[in-house]
Amino acid sequence: MPDTPLLQVTGLNGGYGGKPVLQGVDFHVNEGEIVAIIGRNGVGKSTLMKTLIGLLPNQRGTVHLRGQQIDNLSAHRRARLGIGYVPQGRDVFPRMTVLENLLVGQSISGRKIDGMLEQVHGHFPILQERASQRAGTLSGGQQQQLAIGRVLMGGPSMVLLDEPSEGIQPNIVQGIARIMVDLNARTGLGVVFVEQNLDMIRAMAQRCYVMDKGRITASLTRADLDDQDRLRSYLSV
Amino acid sequence: MDNASPLRRTLALIQGPQTLGRGRRFWAGFAVVLALACAYPMFADSYDVGNNVYFFNWLFMALGLSLIWGYGGSLSFGQTAFFGVAAYCYGVLTINLGDAYGLTLFSLVLAVACSALFAAVLGYFMFYGRINGVFLGIVSLSVTLVLERFMAQTAGPEWAIGAARLNGFNGMGGMPSLTIPWPGGPIVLYPDLPLYYLTLALLVVIYLGLRILVNSRFGNVLVAIRENPLRAEMLGYDIRRYQLMAFVIGSALAGLSGVLYTSWGNYITPASMGMTAAALPIVWVAVGGRGDLTTTLVGTLLVLIVFQMLTIHGSQYALVVMGALLVVTVLVAPRGIVMALVEGAMRLTRRKEAR
Amino acid sequence: MTHILETRQLNKRFGGLHVTGNVDFALDAGEMHCLIGPNGAGKSTFFRLILGEHLPDSGQILFQDQDITRAKPFQRIRQGISVKFQVPGIFKELSVRQNLVIALQHHVDPRLLAEEIDRLLEFLNLSHAQAQLAGNLSHGQKQWLEIGMAIGLKPRLLLLDEPTAGMTPDETHATGEMLKQLNAEGMTLLAVEHDMAFVRQIAQRVTVLHLGKVFAQGSIDQITADPRVAKIYLGEVDA
Amino acid sequence: QDTTPIKLGVLEDQSGDFALATIGKVHAIQLAAEEINAAGGIDGRPLELVEYDTQSDNTRFQEFMRRVLQRDKVDAVFAGFSSASREAYRPIVNQFDGLAFYNNQYEGGVCDANMIVTGAVPEQQFSTLLPYMIEKFGPNVYTIAADYNFGQISAEWVRKIVEENGGKMVGEEFIPLGVSQFSQTIQNIQGAKPDFVVTLLVGTAQASYYEQAGAANVNLPMASSVNVGQGYEHKRFKAPSLKDMYVTVNYIEELDTPASKEFVEKFHAKFPNEPYINQEASNSYAAVYLYKQLVERAKSTDLAEIRKVIAAGDVCVEGPGGQMCIDPKSQHVSHTIHLAHVTADHSIEFPQKWDGIKPYWLGDAGCDLTKDDPSAQYTPSNPPPKS
Amino acid sequence: MVDSLNLVFSFLYQFGDAFAFLVLSACGLAVIFGMMGVINLAHGEFIMCGAYVSTRAAHAGVPMPLAILLGAACAGIAGMIVELLVIRRLYQRPLDTIVATWGISMIVTQGMLILLGPSMQGVGTPFGSFVVGGYSYSVYRIILMLSAVATLAVLWLMFTRTRFGLLSRATIQVPHVAEALGVNTNLVYSVTFGLGAALAGLAGGLYAPTMTLVPTMGASFMVEAFVTVVVGGADIFLGTAPAALILAVIKAGLTSWQGQLAGQIGLLIAVIIVIRILPRGISGKILRERG
Ligand SMILES: Nc1ncnc2c1ncn2[C@@H]1O[C@H](COP(=O)(O)OP(=O)(O)OP(=O)(O)O)[C@@H](O)[C@H]1O
Ligand SMILES: Nc1ncnc2c1ncn2[C@@H]1O[C@H](COP(=O)(O)OP(=O)(O)OP(=O)(O)O)[C@@H](O)[C@H]1O
Ligand SMILES: [Mg+2]
Ligand SMILES: [Mg+2]
């Protein structure tokens, strides 16, 4: 169904209280696509993610998921529609165990999905090994793995990842990229991710948007992505 | 800037990032308010003057709590313990020493020092024992409740220090008011003009002094500890020492309130350290806006005045209205009532200017 | 004094987990050293031990030949260690400028403080945001601010836990250059990083930590060429 | 003729812990004032009440005592329930040389020319109650008392009078204010095997003792100077938890005399929601009439003139519970003391009464306000200095 | 021999009595504080609400156990309303909840006095008494002890074995992430606060037959409740029960040895000492050891 994209964002404005950050963001993600968003520090990437999931109100513009307008829904309702969100800076539930953190992730679908826990453990063995450690005491990279695993637990149909590679060791970064690509291929999982790590972008993204000063300023194709210098130029000052 | 003397530099700290109110307009306003306060007794009867002194008495404790809680981030639920300790010390000292030769003033200093010492001991126990957050609040509350319960049962004649009977729950009375020795006969500071000016002067001095303190390096570290104690320590600050110092200063101010209150009414009871009494300073400071000295000062005064007016005119309904006011204030004025009022006023003037 | 920092048989456990095991580690004065290793290898814990946030179960830590194993954190900072944490530790409710004031007031002459901070803000690219509350910065900006506070202390030894996380490649590169400059001015650097490009850019020596133990040590080329390191850590890229 | 109103300040707790026992006092004062005004006032001057709710808070007493004396310039003040609140305002009354009526049963001992106390004191209540109890139930006495001045001093009186009457203390326990759980106390009492228990409990929390002792089936006779008469526990707790409670009161609502019945009728007609008319309400009511007489005879509201009248020694009124006369030495009041017995179904019978019981102790001990004014509070173990 | 058995029984009874009082007064507060970080100074008023409602119901002929549950339910509903109107807006500012709940407590206490008068007639303690070794004891006190244990057990099951417990803990720790993971955080807050209030109401209902019913009655629970919660620490299950155990031993011991004042002061001093030794309360200690 190429005519109803998975996610359609038009003219989105948003920010914090009186301070506008997003100034009319337009982009879309097609069904079964992995799309990256890149941009320098402070241009509003995280703000965009938070507005998409509904943690920040949008002041103008619309967000449609498979043709359904969702920008008027609360965050948990959007999540129930199958959107998973991994925040920047991990935000695991620090005083709950690793296993409990994963179980909370099931709420996205509101039910337990058989075999999902085993799958997640398969992706991230450390989460099984440390199942009863309190999440707040995990190392930074372990927390990041937990945050990704947690969102997968709910079997989302699309995920928003905010800098998923941050703090993760190189081979696991590759692993995460593989997992996402694999899920995308098997289940049609849609992925929107913000990233600075060029290796990861190249390993995962099918398309890429460049963001600057609260707007989408360029849209790159897969071919553009393979052009290292071109990509770099979008991220430099 | 370079050749500014240390004194000038210290004075410049009277305004800074840690306090609201900067620039000419603020200080002009301050001068006007101060002038009004000085002129006030000319237009008011002696009841109002004395009643205002009574309000002023509490402000020191509120300012102290603002320092400890608002700036330092440690919620002490037991400021009344220091209030009580200083108050009883003052009572015991003056009943035994009498009011001649300025001994009441000496007793004031000694009583405040006692509360500071007590705060230093308790504070050392708490801060160096790494007690923080609500636990700090509850330990300090427990201490004040222990003092209350203990003092409440000292009714018997065996509970006397020198000539001073502690006198249990009924409270200790009969201590002299503050008295200034004067060539033409000592001035007894009854709740009237001289006491009004003395308290006002103390208030101004302490308010300005605290402003300097919180904008100084000490104050910077204090707010840093409030925001992120670990980070503050990792910048090389001995955070426990700073917390302790703020606690001692704030508690000494609570002690000052205690002495002034006792001298004002010639009376102190254990109830002044009870649960209700202990919660009140927190309410004043939170409602006024704990993060700033000026809002604390004005807010506390406002709450005291409004609550008294409500009690006078509201009979049985006073408490209901007070409760409702507290709830509404917290809901509509997250940064304290004074901040809300100031912002509201600014918005109004701006709108007028726009027209 | 050749070693500015030295740990001897440093041990730390959490419950049953041996997080650092008999770590012998020495850092030469004036070098730029990177600490790498898998997630959970114990890198951040090692930092916390050096800083005194955790006390070791056994072993010794020497800084400039002085035993600081039991010293309080603030005392270690005063002796010339400084840190940028993995998770930004800033004063959220204070302005960006105020954050730096607190970091610098300790050792900068009050008369020069304002200038010094202006320079630092410029350097961190945060001049435009100096009046903003630090909590409202973007993630990357917070990292910058934190680095600014750490170097503002003018330490002899600077510990950096993932300084470039969340930065664009260009910014990462700029950070590397900045660190090199600081190093040239005499600061010893110990950084934890997962970004190999950055490690390659700055590190004179690299130590790999694995399961709480020193797993390998050497130049970046030696490390990347080590198949064991590739297996546990690097994967196929960059190997 | 002077028709400016005579102003009476009324500082009573209409909210907070003590409201239960004190709202009735305010109403009683209102009732008396209304009657007096309807009958033409005091020498043609109407009474005007200036009321403040002191919220069971000592500091409010200080604030408002200053207010009524300085701002409202009242001629007399009726103020206070707890002894602490009285002690809180007394320095201020002294400072402004005002006149305050304390219309409350209390631990006794206030020797202060600015105060008139219309409540009963321990010697009046215990010298009557305890001999009766010892004779009727036996000599072994256990006291539980609130752990503060009232309880401790009252317990001291109990000890003294029990020993004077050949009884024996088998136990004494003090309960901090606000305590509401009594399992251990109940066990201690059972262990000591007294013939009766003297309960000097204060505040609503402590009253829970009765329910809990009842539930544990302690089943001992009880004696008190304060419970029932103030907090009408027999009305609030389910029978038979106060069974065989004996209290000496100078008034309670059940008193079966014509004066009492008339008072109850008037009171309930005006305040139909009043749950109970306690001893303190009656004292407050009578106090207004005492004041009326004092002013009429002094022909002035001036304190010095009024005290001259008091010094004459014959100021008496007929209160709802009987005759009350002011003792010039202590400015306390003599009472008719009624022994109230709570039966198994919580009805009250009055097995005995004593007329004209005087507040003798202060005067005997050396307080003489006609001579000098120490403005102090004394106790048997801390008596006035012998001059 | 028999004598010493009697002694043991009497101490156990006193201990159980203190334990029940501590647990029941603290549970509601512990849920609200431990789970939500809200210091609820209106806790006593929810207790009073439970006591009043259950007493009214009992007067109207509702059987006692039902009346008590009704009291708990009403307090719970009142709690949810308070949460909706006030507390919900203050989660980001937990210290302001001190002021707000203090205000609510003033409104409720005085409002009750105005509406229902200064006191309410009690219903009397049911079940009579029994005798062991010359001392007679109230049967109802045993019921209270059993209720305390049952309450702890139910709560434990609820928070560890149900999804609600999981989601509420997640919500309280990082609300925005929980929300983004599909948790209806508003509902969770509301139910959690309601549960805390209902537990307070339950305590009120259970103690109503044994106490004076006045608008300020909640105050006599407050100190014990706070002390227990704080000694227990942030995790209510790991903390509250052991805290209540320790404090009950201290309180019962000191009270029987030196009287009520010693019991009261001892309790407070125990708090100071325990917190000094375990700065994060008992559960903080347990959690740290577990790693
Ligand atoms: N809570 C907040 N309140 C106010 N302003 C904020 C807040 N969080 C972020 N901002 C501001 O909004 C702008 C965009 O921030 P955002 O976090 O979206 O950036 P970003 O593109 O994700 O950057 P980074 O790569 O550093 O994570 C920044 O200028 C930042 O200062
Ligand atoms: N308080 C604690 N209790 C139990 N385990 C802990 C605690 N703190 C850390 N750990 C464990 O110790 C190990 C080392 O953690 P550390 O944070 O030092 O790793 P790291 O090398 O910095 O990893 P990363 O690259 O992911 O940041 C991890 O397995 C972590 O789960
Ligand atoms: Mg971001
Ligand atoms: Mg780490």
TrEMBL record, chain A:
Domain (ABC transporter) ranges: 7-235
GO BP: L-amino acid transport
Superkingdom assignment: Bacteria
Keywords: Amino-acid transport, ATP-binding, Nucleotide-binding, Transport
Signal peptide: none
GO molecular function: ATP binding; ATP hydrolysis activity; branched-chain amino acid transmembrane transporter activity
UniProt cross-references to SMART domains, sorted A to Z: AAA
SUPFAM superfamilies reported in the protein's UniProt record: P-loop containing nucleoside triphosphate hydrolases
Pfam short name (any one): ABC_tran
Family indicated by similarity: Belongs to the ABC transporter superfamily.
Protein name: Amino acid/amide ABC transporter ATP-binding protein 2, HAAT family
UniProtKB/TrEMBL annotation, chain B:
Subcellular location: Cell membrane
Keyword annotations from UniProtKB, A to Z: Cell membrane, Membrane, Transmembrane, Transmembrane helix
A single Gene Ontology CC term: plasma membrane
GO MF, any single term: branched-chain amino acid transmembrane transporter activity
Coiled-coil stretches noted in the UniProt entry, renumbered to this chain: none
Membrane topology field: Multi-pass membrane protein
Organism for this UniProt entry: Paracoccus laeviglucosivorans
Record field: transmembrane: 26-43, 55-73, 80-98, 104-127, 134-152, 195-214, 244-261, 267-286, 293-311, 317-342
Protein name: Amino acid/amide ABC transporter membrane protein 2, HAAT family
Primary location: membrane
UniProtKB/TrEMBL annotation, chain C:
Any one of the GO CC terms: plasma membrane
InterPro entries: AAA+_ATPase (IPR003593), ABC_AA/LPS_Transport (IPR051120), ABC_transporter-like_ATP-bd (IPR003439), P-loop_NTPase (IPR027417)
Keywords recorded for this protein, A-Z: ATP-binding, Nucleotide-binding, Transport
PROSITE patterns per record: ABC_TRANSPORTER_2
Claim: Nucleotide-binding is one of the keywords in the record: yes
Record GO terms (molecular function): ATP binding; ATP hydrolysis activity
SMART domains, alphabetized: AAA
Keyword ATP-binding: yes
Domain ABC transporter: 5-236
Residues making up the signal peptide according to the UniProt record: none
PANTHER family per UniProt: CONSERVED COMPONENT OF ABC TRANSPORTER FOR NATURAL AMINO ACIDS-RELATED (PTHR45772), HIGH-AFFINITY BRANCHED-CHAIN AMINO ACID TRANSPORT ATP-BINDING PROTEIN (PTHR45772:SF8)
Protein name: Amino acid/amide ABC transporter ATP-binding protein 1, HAAT family
Source organism of this protein record: Paracoccus laeviglucosivorans
UniProtKB/TrEMBL annotation, chain E:
GO biological process, one term: amino acid transport
Keyword Transmembrane applies: yes
CDD domains per the UniProt record, alphabetical: TM_PBP1_LivH_like
GO molecular function: transmembrane transporter activity
Alphabetic keyword roster: Amino-acid transport, Cell membrane, Membrane, Transmembrane, Transmembrane helix, Transport
Keyword Metal-binding listed: no
Main localisation: membrane
PANTHER family: ABC TRANSPORTER PERMEASE PROTEIN, BRANCHED-CHAIN AMINO ACID TRANSPORT SYSTEM PERMEASE PROTEIN LIVH
Family in the record: Belongs to the binding-protein-dependent transport system permease family. LivHM subfamily.
Protein name: Amino acid/amide ABC transporter membrane protein 1, HAAT family
The organism of origin for this protein: Paracoccus laeviglucosivorans
